[in-house]
Amino acid sequence: MVQIIKNAKVLNEQGQLETKHIVVKDGRIEAVLGEGADVPVQDGSVQTIDAQGKLVTPGFIDMHVHLREPGYEHKETIESGSRSAVKGGFTTIACMPNTRPVTDTPQTVELVLEKARQAQMAKVLPYAAITKNELGRELTDFEALKSAGAIGFTDDGVGVQSAQMMKDAMKRAKALNMPVIAHCEDDSLVKGAFVTEGKFAERHGLKGIPNESEAIHVGRDILLAEATGVHYHVCHVSTEQSVRLIRQAKAIGISVTAEVCPHHLVLSDEDIPGLDANWKMNPPLRSPRDVEACIEGLLDGTLDMIVTDHAPHSVEEKAKGMELAPFGIVGFETAFPLLYTRFVATGKWELSFLVKRMTSDPARVFGLDSGVLTPGAPADLTMIDLDLEKEVNPEQFATKGRNTPFTGWKLKGWPVMTWVDGQVRWSEQDGF
Ligand SMILES: NC(=O)N[C@@H](CC(=O)O)C(=O)O
Ligand SMILES: [Zn+2]
Ligand SMILES: [Zn+2]
User: Fold this and answer.
1) Looking at the whole model, is its pTM more than 0.90?
2) What is the mean pLDDT of the chain?
3) Domain 59-366 listed as CATH 3.20.20.450
4) Which of 4, 6, 128, 195 sits a CA distance of 20 to 30 A from 265?
């Protein structure tokens, strides 16, 4: 089947917008034609959508998300999570193994893949755990997990406390040509704290999570990555010190890549209004100085990509208050408008830069064939109305989660239609 998306604004190699007609055939991009080009005959077999000058980008890729299934279906399911993803313009999402059971066996990897197939929404790429039950005691069967379809190994949710365990994991992953993805957190430095060390903690008389609890693992793991040669990827970077260590490691050719979340680029601990669990996430919101360092790191390529760390929790769980509620906020449905409004609409970033960090950069780092509009690539596409302005309203989210600090924010640049393999999965007008 042939589809034509007419009059789409597309970013060219130089990052400028050009009007194009995107031709899709059998789920793949067939051609991206210039304005004057002859569009293939539009008989009955050709389906045409007029983008009317709206931006069309490769579908967003989110390499760090929590879909909660199996085990925590009250927070999210693979279906509700992947619907939320598609509504946020994401067409490929990589899900973390901190489910119940933990994704530490081939059976659980297969279950995740099967549920994702049934949901028929976004492409779901499962990570598997580094250690059994994410307890840090015994490595999982990397080879079997890879065969079942896992794309990398991580104990996200907790740090791997033992350096020896991490080194063994890296050796095994390297032998299988697989990446190790690390949630960097030294438990001995955190002990019970739930906000960053700094102004907010001081004002409320709270013990803080120091920056070193993250950066110590980053530094340790960079050395282990150097020793083992593995592709080491750092999760949700939030501190100046981590950015510095990753920058130095890259400069001397160590195989390290990293991600950063929208909330760590937009919010600091000084923005937290009070003891509200919708502002509680791991890593915590850091100081304005850390925020600036993360932005700089993203700009100079030290941080390779933006991920949401979409982490839905139920209203009841988040109502327990900041101390007792679980860490995490939802992310899919606010990520692009948030960053577009804050950084692109204000003239700080080029639109092409933001899009690259959400599409071709994650695809390059993880070797995916999507994230680009070149002929032959899957027709995973997102149409965005850059002028559309809406208030964030969690009641309208497709995710089961309502846990966001961005309620009521007026944002511009909302996704309005999403295609996966040439199929429209969601549109603002017609829903799912
Ligand atoms: N980021 C979070 O605050 N929470 C994540 C775990 C994690 O990403 O470490 C979760 O699973 O809820
Ligand atoms: Zn984490
Ligand atoms: Zn996470």
Assistant:
1) yes
2) 98
3) no
4) 128
